[in-house]
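sorry to bug you again but im stuck and you know this stuff better than me. what follows is a protein written twice so to speak, once as letters and once as structure tokens for the fold. id like you to explain what the token line says about the fold, in plain words if possible. anything you notice is useful, everything is just below.
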Amino acid sequence: MTTAAWLVLAFPLAGTVIIGLGHRAWPGRMAGWIGTLAILASFICSIVVFVNLQDRDEHHRQVTSTLFDYADTVGVDAKLTILVDPLSVLMMLVVTGVSTLIHLYSVTYMTGDRGFSRYFAYLNFFVFSMLVLVLAGNFVPLIIGWAFVGAASYLLISFWYRRDTATAAGIKAFVINVVGDVGLVLGTFFILRHSGTLDFLGTFDAVHDGAFADHRGALVAGCMLLLVGAFAKSAQIPLHTWLPDAMEGPTPVSSLIHAATMVTAGVYLIARMHPLFEVATPAADLAAIIGCATLLIAGTIALTQTDIKRVIAYSTMSQI
């Protein structure tokens, strides 16, 4: 099962490298078909993981696998670890399934564009980054995937870089996402300082065992900083201004960002960190307040828009 989970990551990465290195060699739509098949293979592996996980007992559906230790010193256990559980498998299926359809549609949509191969290399890289994020077993790959998704979104939104509006929109999205990255890193530091581990399951056990009993303020601060990352990625107020401008990218890119991938990263983060938010109730209250405010404000703004893609952008913010 864990081998299939690693293959879910490997196929989009391989697609990125193959298309990127041979972009001048691929004739016609070949780059598009390679990219689509890579994501389809990842989707099939996701189904294999899902089926294997269903065969396990309800209390044994959290499986970790470590490829290598990045650093294990002075209390920092940074490892390249994946966590296979119902939440990560659900996100895996959604990301790979929706992305396969978007890739397939893009093969025809982008035909004739002089950046055809470059487009599919970026698209595969985006899916790889998103899968690193959702399969992360500790905070290190989570932060790496979080940053990669921001970089990939910049590349895709600014894809038609000869248009000034596209490059400006890409830069805005990148800068706001970096603000979220900073919040995520600082939040991780607050949590690591008292939990003593970067591992998700270890952190949840530490919280359950009372590691923050005398440091509840640090946990609340850490969770609020994690929310900064979630708000930036999911375009919640006040870090929402990048999403309507992201419409400058090709239409399949808009669907990839607005559908079941990038904007759901913030939702995934809050769901993954739920054991922390259960204890840090002020942070959970803040998430609810910001969510309600975004729901009302974005929904109201959408009523005044005349561009259908911007209507969808604000409606996405409202529903997330």
Residues 88 and 278 are 20 Å apart (CA to CA). The beta strands are 63-73, 76-84. The chain has a mean pLDDT of 84.
